[in-house]
Amino acid sequence: MPAEVLALVARSNSLGRDRRITNYGGGNTSCKVEVEDPVTGESRHLLWIKGSGGDLGSLTVDGLAVLDLDRVRALRRRYRGPEDEARLMGLLAYCRYGPAGPSPSLDTAFHALLPAAHVDHTHATAIVTLATCARGPELVRELFGDRVAWVDWRRPGFALAVELLELVEGRPKLEGVVLAGHGLVSWGDTSEACEATTRSIIDAAADLVAARTTAPPAPRRTSTPRPAALAPHLRRVCSTDRRSVAAFVDAPEVLGFLDNPTARELVDRGTSCPDHLLRTRDRPLFLDLDADRDLRVQIDEAHRAYRDRYRAYYERHADADSPPMRGADPRVVLVPGVGMWTFGADARDAAITAEYYRQAMEIMQAAEGLGGYRPLSDRERFDIEYWDLEAAKLDRRPPPPALQGVVALVTGAASGIGRAVALALGAAGAAVVAADLDRPGADAVADEIESGGGAGTGIALDVADEDSVIAAVEATVERYGGIDVLVNSAGVASGEPLLDTTAEGWNEVAAVFGRGTFLLSREVARAMITQGCGGDIVHIVSKNAVVAGPGNVAYAAAKAAQLHQVRLLAAELGAHGIRVNAVNPDAVVRGSGLFRGEWAEARADAHGVSVEDLPSFYASRTLLGEEVLPEHVAAAVLALVDGTFPRTTGAYLPVDGGLPAAFPR
Fold first, then answer.
1. DSSP code per residue over 498-547
2. What pLDDT score was predicted for residue 632?
3. Which CATH superfamily is domain 227-395 in?
């Protein structure tokens, strides 16, 4: 691999990990390298550029698109004007070089035409502040003189590339350009020089912004409505077009911006740069709530008005060639005194949208202070949002996982069945809250989900304590906007015969399996009904709920009550689209938090085997002769909640290897 390419990756990572310089997935970098063609042995000039949709901070060599530079530059001769952009961008596919890699960026044209060996394109907060300020051209001249030029807004493509090339040819000492309403393009003869130039321009802009703007006053935070009370309502309306997951931010700078008397008017002018549009839409939903009016009514009214306005925006600018409207729900909701919610297809998407809009708020406030915030016009924003080339980028996304957009709360998640269920739901795309008395264990499961590319959060939960249950459900709703799946998997071991069972022991088991599942189901059902998206509640019960046997009266009676609770809840919640089902496992020994210590020894003694032989003993009792593992139970839960059984409720599914005595009747 050429040293210049390795230096490009290092530079990209350095710039991309500095959130002052670019957001996740924003910006692009490139280098031009002369190499020997492995087939002909001839010298070839290649352009290496960050692939479309990639992230600078985590970029690797595999994330670079490689193009034949001479062929890309030859496209300039084929260019017939702005109406020709889509055709020429399509021809970039014929300029790719070597084994298949990612699609080239929409900014490839100016990276190729600019003569410098190394080019950076970034969206630094301070630069976009200048780029969206009414006094932007004046401030750029004052700050940089002949070092940096101002270029009026032009959509990315060959027209912009030709304009930049002609500018550089006329001003060979130029080091960069500020693109109005967009960002910075800078360059250098080496990777080190390019990064140094990029950072020096951004630092100078940041110093000017800091010197000429004032920090907002201390923010106001209201006590009502609480975020957890608002979130299910917001998720309900923001999931009209598709189910969405939320991110909530109440950082001081967000609350401070919303306290600004001009905040509503600023956000109504539209978002600050093209990169933001595709995630945040042109405007947020701004909710100034009246404490004396019904919360649901206010949110519904504001949402209807937002959708009507967005539809009018689309119809005003769309023509026969425009892509269909991509829904009309807001992706950002601002509530003064409370905070900001952002919505996305999954938790990661929502969090990135939050990052983008936090930057947008900072830019709006600073640009207004510097001389007036002036973003792109509605027409220009629409042309970016519904550009057919941007639509093609969306079409290249991989198909969504089965549980994308789903939020799940799993109890008893630190070990055994609960852990397996949490990991399976996370792998299927759900945002998972792993809850357990063992908080470090719950955190470890959440970390494992995150390390696999999913979204996980660990919380402490005592299912028998009402306050703890309410707090856990509120934490889930506040974190992700709502809840779609509850898996009651928390358990406790008990195996005493009747005469040895104490009232305290009976109450302890009943508190977990009866009271605990009741409390959780009640609080989760409140959130599900409010958000209006239906949902699934699954109880992990037991073979012992339907098979009588000696020596476990408290455990089996509590499990039988838990199973009947499934039927009762299914009968009551079906009208709200909420399915309630059970999984009945048996003898899940490996990885179990219950089959440890005295409980395991008692079970082994009762069956006349060693603790080590318990798995094989239980397997020998089944029709299939196979051990039941936590993953088998998790697979059954996944099938119940992933849409495989959309018309099933009030049922129980045995996962016991085949026990005739436990067959459903």
1. GGG--HHHHHHHHIIIIIIHHHHHHHHHHHHHHHTS-EEEEEE--GGGTS
2. 95
3. Class II aldolase/adducin N-terminal domain (3.40.225.10)
